[in-house]
Amino acid sequence: MEQLKMPKDPTLTFHSDQCMKHTYRKNGQDVVKPIQKIVLDGKAVCPRCQVEAQTKELQQFESDRADRIEKLRKYNVLYKDSLISDDTILTATFGNYTATAPEEIENKKQMFGYWERLKKGEQLNIILQGSPGAGKSHLCYSLLQELNNYDRDVENPNDKKTCLFINVEELMRKIKHSFKFPDVKYTEDYLIELMIGVDYLVLDDLGAETGAIDTDKQASNFVQRVLYAVANGRQGKSTFTTFNLAGDTLKKMYDGKVLSRLMAGKNFVVFKETTDKRIENLPF
Ligand SMILES: [Zn+2]
């Protein structure tokens, strides 16, 4: 018979009751193994039940801790892994997007509408088109912040969604750099995997990367390759793309499949009249 270890406490007293909850296997059958209860703080308790309860509590504590770490990791993807060219974007919120012209007011409202739908779990792609500085990146980053904060406290870390903001020019610069220095963190494979993996992705300033990579033929090939991999890998996920170029120019630049995948659903937010808000706000 298995001996139950008892604490070496001189004041330990056994109780006449036995706990009948514990069993062991014998010849394929569960056999009850009575455990003599002890008196603890004037109450009869089963020492085996005590140990099991403590173990369970400890396991729960450890699992809660792992959940918190996983949720925090996912929350931090936006702040740790985004590629941003202009740091002022980091403070962007819907609240500090100043909309005065009718078009701005309308576009902000439209973005709010999308936010409401995304919050309910709907998948949708959004395309923001317009001149530089119209506030497209601002609105997209605001949307990501809202999404990232919205499910911050979900119970199950599997339900926490991840957000990522990628400036396309910065992305291509990083990948091009890795061709010469393959040991860096930001390689083509790493970045593609990162962009495919997140739940919400902003591709900021599509088309501007052509300035960074000149007319290098090979360079333009890798841009196509990267965008194709991302657009293909993200089917069924929400991607928000901004660009300054006219639609026709974009069509000449990129594979039709890339564009059709990024623009699936045709949710366009267009700035036709809004001039550069950054220039507008200069103090002269
Ligand atoms: Zn027991």
Please name the defining characteristics of this protein:
284 residues; alpha/beta; Rossmann fold; 2 domains; three-stranded antiparallel β-sheet; 18% strand; elongated; binds zinc ion
Provide an overview of this structure.
It is a single chain. This protein is of the alpha/beta class. It folds into two domains: 1-78, no CATH class; 82-280, 3-Layer(aba) Sandwich (Rossmann fold). Helices cover 46% and strands 18% of the residues. The protein contains ten helices and ten strands. The protein has helices at 47-81, 102-119, 136-150, 168-180, 188-197, 209-213, 217-233, 247-253, 256-262, 277-280; strands spanning 13-19, 23-26, 29-32, 35-40, 43-45, 126-130, 163-167, 200-206, 238-243, 268-271. The strands form three sheets. A five-stranded parallel sheet has the order 7-8-9-6-10. A hairpin with a 2-residue loop joins strand 4 (35-40) and strand 5 (43-45). Helix 2 (102-119) runs parallel beside helix 3. It is elongated and about 90 Å long.
Which SSEs are present, and which pair or pack?
Elements: E1 13-19, E2 23-26, E3 29-32, E4 35-40, E5 43-45, H1 47-81, H2 102-119, E6 126-130, H3 136-150, E7 163-167, H4 168-180, H5 188-197, E8 200-206, H6 209-213, H7 217-233, E9 238-243, H8 247-253, H9 256-262, E10 268-271, H10 277-280
Parallel strand pairs: 6-9, 6-10, 7-8, 8-9
Antiparallel strand pairs: 1-4, 2-3, 4-5
The structure holds zinc ion (ZN).
